[in-house]
Design a protein that fits this description.
The protein is built from 5 helices and 8 strands. Helix 2 runs antiparallel to helix 3.
């Protein structure tokens, strides 16, 4: 019966060992655990590939920079179930980042459309060329809004966009839930795509 369950791709159950010396049962349980781990890794890789593929598909064609930015942040935001996202592009003079695209973003007086390098999480992530994750944000943060609800984000992820290790922009996503390791891996791949 257990062999049939394993053959159908269900690797979640374990065989009840007959004794501490049940080598066959132990071997089957070990094999099942390895198959389960391999299946999980395969699912993760497929999820990453699908996400990068969807992003690339959204960015294909001859697009104006603003359309490209809106499509990029929209595709990333939807794929990660983020509540809000912004895309800042490095200005030609190379010392500022200017808001170019957004996803579910509502302009607020307290939120800037431009950052200098080193200013705020956006500018600091750009300066260091490293992601910044902020958790447990203040209650006065701009809310994530929909037509029927509004709530304060608890997490933001600021990711520099690099092309051949040169800064081209920064994206920032706000969410109610923390991004797991797989979602952060997708952001890493998407920021270098």
């Amino acid at each position: 019966v257990q062999a049939d369950i394993i053959a159908q791709g269900d690797f979640s159950s374990q065989i009840k060992l007959r004794s501490e010396k049940d080598r066959l049962g132990t071997a089957i349980n070990n094999m099942t655990a390895m198959l389960h781990q391999n299946k999980e890794e395969s699912n993760h890789q497929n999820w990453l590939k699908d996400g990068v593929g969807q992003l690339n598909q959204n960015l294909s064609g001859d697009l104006e920079p603003r359309d490209l930015a809106n499509r990029a942040i929209g595709a990333i935001g939807r794929y990660l179930n983020a509540g809000r996202g912004v895309f800042y592009a490095l200005t030609e003079d190379g010392d500022r980042l200017s808001l170019l695209g957004s996803y579910m973003y509502t302009e607020r007086e307290s939120l800037s459309a431009e950052f200098r390098l080193g200013e705020g999480a956006v500018g600091q992530g750009a300066l260091e060329k490293k992601p910044i994750a902020l958790t447990h944000l203040r209650a006065d943060e701009a809310p994530i809004t929909s037509g029927t609800a509004s709530g304060k984000p608890l997490y933001t992820y600021t990711i520099p966009l690099l092309q051949e290790n040169e800064l081209v922009g920064v994206i920032e996503l706000a969410a109610f839930q923390p991004f797991d390791e797989l979602q952060r891996e997708f952001l890493k791949e998407a920021s270098h795509a």
